[in-house]
């Protein structure tokens, strides 16, 4: 693994242990009885307040593409810890575990992101629920 | 022998001086303690934990609710603008915003202490020149602060609030959105605890809600290593995609 990649991974991985403030309530927006697991390619990253959003296109066996949007922590808190938007970029293949929005749309809380090499990182805010009870 | 004793004496004095220099309270040119710098948000050493990253007040330290103070524990009514107005980028207000898990910067001169909190860029300009509270103001989210010195402790008294959330306990129990009344007065006591941290006490005096004032002590860790980056911008309206839990289709 190249040094730069490793540093980025280390910074992103540290999200799992860091408290991140959400300005909103998980329970108001997401349904913890509706976990989702989405495999796809990152198409866009919005590194903006009050929460980052990253968008993922997943393709089923028939080739049908579904668009998903996942929310994460606030950019300022991430940047203070050395985590910049280069950590997650369009074109990356990811598996995202999270919880679907209560309105039933393809928006979700992006709780856990897994990269093809097995790295697992947590993008959820501290008060958010984590799939499989892990945090 | 006498020469050795003298050398030891001088060396001891030098060590003592060096120690004092490293632990001395930083001071402004007029001799007051200088709190200028970047800090972590106030943290409690013990007490109640929020199901969020913010600090919340410890219920065990609160005075009992007085008869008529029951609205302190506001219940949700299903309207997201009522249940969590920050979901629509409404302000956290004070003291709630001060306890959010973001960096805080103090900028101080003889006449003012300016406190800027990264969360929602909460800014409080606190006069230190002995002026009284302003009159005729509408109730405010952040109140009207004035400060004065009591020895090496800065005391800030803030009044003129509108009824609003006291802290983030809502994230732990949505049936307990703690709401202070418009009679709230918050008194902060700020002093250097040690060279790396400031002692920060908040006294909550809300005579419409509690039988007596109550206080909680917090610590704010100095973070000089955050000074180079400063506070980051926080504009909630920038991309608040899901106000009230209603998100656009991706």
Give a brief outline of the structure.
The complex is a heterodimer of chains A (135) and B (250). Chain A has 135 residues and is an alpha+beta fold.
* Total helical elements of chain B: 2
Mean pLDDT of chain A: 76
CATH architecture of chain B: Beta Barrel
Biggest sheet strand order of chain B reads 6-7-10-11-12
What keyword list fits this structure?
heterodimer, A: 135 residues, alpha+beta, OB fold (Dihydrolipoamide Acetyltransferase, E2P), five-stranded mixed barrel, 6 strands, 38% strand, B: 250 residues, mainly beta, Lipocalin, five-stranded antiparallel β-sheet, four-stranded antiparallel β-sheet, 2 helices
Structural account:
The complex is a heterodimer of chains A (135) and B (250). Chain A has one domain (3-128): OB fold (Dihydrolipoamide Acetyltransferase, E2P) (Beta Barrel), CATH 2.40.50. Chain A is 16% helix and 38% strand. Chain A is globular and about 40 Å long. Chain A starts with a helix and ends in a 13-residue tail after the last strand. Chain A has a 5-stranded mixed β-barrel with strand order 1-2-3-5-4. Chain A is an alpha+beta fold and 135 residues long. Chain B is mainly beta. Chain B has one domain (26-223): Lipocalin (Beta Barrel), CATH 2.40.128. Helix content of chain B is 10%, strand content 28%. In chain B, the strands form 3 sheets. In chain B, strands 6-7-10-11-12 form a 5-stranded antiparallel sheet, with no helix packed on it. A 4-stranded antiparallel sheet of chain B has the order 1-3-4-5, with no helix packed on it. Chain B has a 3-stranded antiparallel sheet with strand order 2-9-8, with no helix packed on it. The longest helix of chain B has 22 residues, at 2-23. The termini of chain B are far apart. The mean pLDDT of chain B is 91. The A-B interface holds A 19-29, 46, 48-51, 53, 55, 67-69, 71, 74-77, 79-80, 101-103, 105-107, 125-127 and B 50-54, 80, 83-84, 86-87, 89, 92, 100-103, 118-120, 170-171, 174, 226, 229, 231-236, 238-242, 244-250.
């Amino acid at each position: 693994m190249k040094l730069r990649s490793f540093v980025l991974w280390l910074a992103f991985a540290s999200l799992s242990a860091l408290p991140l403030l959400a300005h909103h309530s998980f329970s108001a927006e997401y349904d913890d009885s509706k976990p989702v697991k989405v495999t796809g390619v990152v198409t866009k990253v919005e590194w903006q307040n009050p929460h980052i959003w990253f968008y993922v296109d997943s393709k089923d066996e028939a080739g049908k593409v579904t668009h998903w949007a996942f929310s994460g922590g606030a950019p300022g808190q991430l940047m203070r810890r050395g985590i910049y938007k280069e950590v997650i970029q369009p074109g990356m293949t990811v598996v995202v575990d999270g919880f679907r929005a209560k309105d039933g749309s393809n928006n979700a809380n992006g709780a856990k992101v897994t990269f093809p090499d097995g790295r697992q990182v947590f993008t959820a805010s501290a008060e958010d629920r984590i799939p499989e009870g892990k945090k | 022998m006498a020469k050795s004793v003298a050398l030891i004496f001088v060396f001891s004095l030098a060590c003592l001086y060096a120690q004092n220099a490293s632990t001395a309270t930083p001071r402004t040119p007029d001799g007051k303690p200088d709190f200028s710098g970047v800090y972590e948000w106030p943290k409690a050493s013990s007490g109640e934990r929020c199901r969020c990253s913010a600090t919340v007040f410890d219920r065990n330290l609160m005075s009992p609710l007085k008869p008529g103070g029951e609205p302190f524990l506001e219940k949700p009514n299903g309207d997201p603008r009522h249940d969590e107005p920050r979901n629509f980028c409404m302000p956290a207000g004070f003291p709630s915003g001060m306890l959010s898990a973001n960096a805080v910067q103090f900028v101080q001169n003889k006449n003012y202490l300016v406190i800027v909190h990264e969360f929602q860029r909460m800014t409080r300009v606190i006069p230190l020149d002995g002026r009284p509270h302003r009159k005729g103001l509408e109730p405010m989210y952040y109140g009207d602060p004035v400060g004065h010195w009591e020895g090496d402790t800065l005391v800030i008294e803030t009044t003129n609030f509108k009824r609003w959330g006291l802290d983030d306990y809502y994230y732990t129990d949505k049936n307990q959105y703690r709401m202070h009344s418009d009679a709230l007065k918050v008194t902060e006591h700020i002093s250097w605890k040690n060279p790396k941290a400031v002692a920060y006490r908040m006294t909550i005096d809300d005579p419409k809600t509690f039988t007596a004032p109550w206080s909680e002590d917090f610590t704010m860790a100095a973070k000089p290593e955050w000074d180079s980056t400063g506070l980051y911008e926080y504009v909630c309206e920038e991309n608040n995609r899901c106000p009230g839990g209603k998100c656009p289709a991706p």
